[in-house]
Structure formats: structure tokens, C-alpha cells
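FW: tagging you since you asked about this chain on Friday. Here's the raw sequence from the shared folder, copied in full. Didn't touch anything.
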Amino acid sequence: MDVSSSAVIGPALRLPHPIGIVIGDNAVLHGSITIYQNSTIGSKNGYPEIGNHTIIYPNSVIVGPINVGDHCVIGAGSFLDRSLIANTVFHK
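HL: got it, structure written out here
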């Protein structure tokens, strides 16, 4: 697991299987976020901001200067490089 010391991580971050997780510089993770194994939150000309009560399932990649709203679900194996409004389920 590789978590940058400059990432902003709120309370209640859950890492049920903390293997292969990467959280890059300047990523912002608000409270109550769950991230499963082999997921990356990284840069593509900027870092993501992820809202409260979001679940990121295994093998997902979230990159770019994007915003992920509260109560979102990112499906397993997803590649996300665009913003999501609150209460969105994304799988691609």
C-alpha cells in the first residue's frame, strides 16, 4: 500500500483489504470512504476529490482533477476520469 503524506484523508477511511492500494499526492478523500484492494487514486493533470460515503471496489482507477460526489459507488475494475454527481453508481 502506498499513501502519500500530502493526501488529505478524512475520518473513517476503511481499507478492508489493504493490498495494492495507491493514494497519490494532493488527493482529497472526505469521511466514510471504503477502498478495496488494488485500487489507485492518482494524477492525470491533477488529483481527485472524493465525497463522503463512497465505496471504491477492487481494481479501480480514479484519476484527474475530478470530483466524485457523496454516496457514490465505483464498480470493480472501473477506470474513472470524469466527475460524478452524488448518488451515482459507476462501472466501466
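FW: Residues 1-92 form a domain with the UDP N-Acetylglucosamine Acyltransferase; domain 1 fold (CATH 2.160.10.10).
HL: agreed, and The chain has no helices and 13 strands.
FW: great, closing this out.
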